[in-house]
TrEMBL record:
Documented EC number(s): 2.3.3.13
Protein name (record): 2-isopropylmalate synthase
Catalytic activity annotation: 3-methyl-2-oxobutanoate + acetyl-CoA + H2O = (2S)-2-isopropylmalate + CoA + H(+)
Keyword Transferase carried by entry: yes
Lineage per the UniProt record: Bacteria, Pseudomonadati, Pseudomonadota, Gammaproteobacteria, Lysobacterales
Biological or metabolic pathway of the protein: Amino-acid biosynthesis; L-leucine biosynthesis; L-leucine from 3-methyl-2-oxobutanoate: step 1/4
Gene: leuA
Protein function: Catalyzes the condensation of the acetyl group of acetyl-CoA with 3-methyl-2-oxobutanoate (2-ketoisovalerate) to form 3-carboxy-3-hydroxy-4-methylpentanoate (2-isopropylmalate).
Polar residues composition-biased segments: 1-15
Required co-factors: Mn(2+)
Length: 535
């Protein structure tokens, strides 16, 4: 963890950046992950964090350590693993939160504590029950405490855009005096317009004392579809950090989409005169990785990374494109990492070609994981004529060791008849050596398989989410099954990929059972340890 003290503009050693460089603060793993349907386990978060570092984000908000032990562990692991990206942890302006965030960041090479406290009259009265003076004093005390742990402290005035501008300037002035190095003005409820954004940031930069000692930041939500426009407006009025997420995921309608902000700054460089540290050729692979890991696809027409973003359907457009690309294209697919030619891999391809392709798709695999992936690649290549990028992504996701053991599926049969219920039989083996077979009927083959697995493993699961998607094309396409189930008052996710969707569903259900069982073993071991029963 960084402990030396320095003003924000100098601490990164990029003096040129203060004026011309916009810092990209990625919050995919915190604000993004908070949104329903996007929760990620620790391993998934680490995989995403590594891809974000390769993408070149400046600051990566890894989570909210005080929120849960899982969040703490994820932040700690990401902090330990990343090499040069600043790893950030969120904390309320409370002693416990700050101390926990600092502990989670202890092993980081570069770290930041991100404090937030509401400042708007609505939040002061109804959420906090605090006066202006109390808000001010709490913010100052918290920043001072965080600065004892970390030289890089960000303060966010939650609901800033509905806060009285003079009070906001007063809080920010006090925050700088207390040691904050980044000041974030979030549009927490996505209420603002670009013109208002320009007005506020211009005002703040004029009225905050010692404004030059901190970096101003925007954090915009997309409730009215203006998050990206508002972020860019803030930048044009002097903000030099934007907080955003891959594919724009986030609370409610989401956060500002990282890929859109970055490409707007790049494509319209003559207009903005600003740069970022993002390797834009990694945008598409990173976006794809997120959709694969969460099972949530982006709309076809999504800017920059949607399937249609570079597709030209109408004859007039195609004709123009063939004559001169820039008639209808403002950026090239390669600029965002969409390969124009897809290298086809098949059963004769080697390990080297496979690794290269996986890396190009944003998957960084170590040698050990590569052994398993290569084996599964060869098995798939025996079944499929042509292995496409989507297949490879599926294989790479399947590398998650969480998806295997202690239970393994050894046999699966299902039958269904039009107008009547379906039945399934499963045979499972457990790593302790015993085997179990069960049969069940259900409202369809998926239901029957789930019931049979529940019975065989003795695990109660209430299915709360189920999605199957084809992730490649053709009759031998792979299906991605993603399940969410409730067990012991908690949601558990499992996903798997197979050319047979029922088989993919069974593996996804088993991945959930395995997580539940491993977690139980882990807790039992911890309990024994705390009682002095185990070493
Ligand atoms: O939207 C918001 O206000 C936030 C803060 C925690 C920065 O996410
Ligand atoms: Zn937010």
């Amino acid at each position: 963890m960084t402990t030396e003290t320095a003003p924000a503009n100098e601490s990164n050693g990029d003096s040129e950046s203060a004026e011309d460089r916009v810092r990209i603060f990625d919050t995919t793993l915190r604000d993004g992950e908070q949104a329903p349907g996007f929760s990620m386990d620790r391993r998934t978060k680490l995989c995403m964090a590594q891809a974000l570092e390769t993408l070149g984000v400046d600051i990566l908000e890894a989570g909210f350590p005080q929120a849960s032990p899982d969040d703490f562990a994820a932040v700690e692991e990401i902090a330990r693993t990343l090499h040069h990206t600043t790893v950030c942890a969120l904390a309320r302006c409370q002693t416990g939160d700050i101390d926990t965030a600092a502990r989670a960041l202890e092993r980081a090479r570069q770290s930041r504590i991100h404090l937030f406290l509401s400042t708007s009259p609505l939040h002061r009265e109804h959420k906090l029950g605090m006066s202006k003076q109390q808000v001010l004093e709490t913010a100052v005390a918290s920043i001072e405490r965080a600065r004892k742990y970390c030289a890089d402290v960000e303060f966010s005035a939650e609901d800033a855009l509905r806060t009285e501008p003079d009070f906001l300037a007063e809080v920010f002035s006090a925050a700088i005096a207390a040691g904050a190095t980044t000041l974030n003005a979030p549009d927490t409820v996505g209420y603002t317009t670009p013109a208002e954004m320009v007005e506020l940031f211009t005002y703040l930069r004029r009225h905050v004392r010692d404004a030059h000692k901190a970096v101003f930041s925007a954090h915009c939500h997309d409730d009215l579809g203006m998050a990206v426009a508002n972020s860019l407006a803030a930048v044009s009025a002097g903000a030099r950090q934007v907080e955003c997420t891959i594919n724009g995921i986030g609370e409610r309608a989401g956060n500002a989409a990282l890929e859109e902000i970055v490409m707007a700054l790049k494509v319209r460089a003559p207009h903005f005169g600003l740069s970022t540290g993002i390797d834009t050729r990694k945008l598409y692979p990173t976006s794809r990785l997120l959709t694969q890991l969460t099972g949530q696809a982006v709309p076809r027409n999504k800017a920059v990374v949607g399937e249609n973003a570079f597709a030209h359907e109408s004859g007039i457009h195609q004709h123009g494109m063939l004559k001169h690309r820039s008639t209808y294209e403002i950026m090239r697919p390669q600029d965002v990492g969409i390969a124009e030619t897809t290298l086809v891999l098949g059963k004769h391809s080697g390990r080297h070609a496979l690794r290269q392709r996986l890396e190009a798709l944003g998957h960084h695999v170590d040698d050990h994981a590569m052994d398993g992936i290569f084996k599964r690649f060869k098995a798939l290549a025996d079944r499929k004529r042509e292995i496409r990028d989507e297949d490879l992504e599926a294989l790479a996701i399947g590398q998650d060791p969480d998806a295997t053991g202690p239970w393994h599926l050894t046999q699966l049969n299902t039958s269904s008849h039009l107008g009547s219920s379906a039945s399934a039989t499963v045979k499972l083996s457990h790593e302790d050596g015993h085997e179990v077979g069960e049969a069940a009927i259900g409202d369809g083959p998926v239901d029957a398989v789930l019931r049979a697995i529940e019975r065989a493993t003795g695990t109660d699961m209430e299915l709360t989410g189920f999605q199957v998607r084809a992730i490649s094309e053709g009759g031998d396409a792979q299906g991605h099954a993603q399940l969410t189930a409730r067990h012991a008052q908690r949601d558990w996710n499992g996903s798997s990929v197979s050319t047979d969707i029922i088989e993919a569903t069974a593996h996804a259900a088993l991945a959930i059972v395995n997580r539940i069982e491993r977690q139980g073993e882990h807790h039992a071991a911890q309990a024994m340890k705390s009682q002095g029963v185990a070493p």
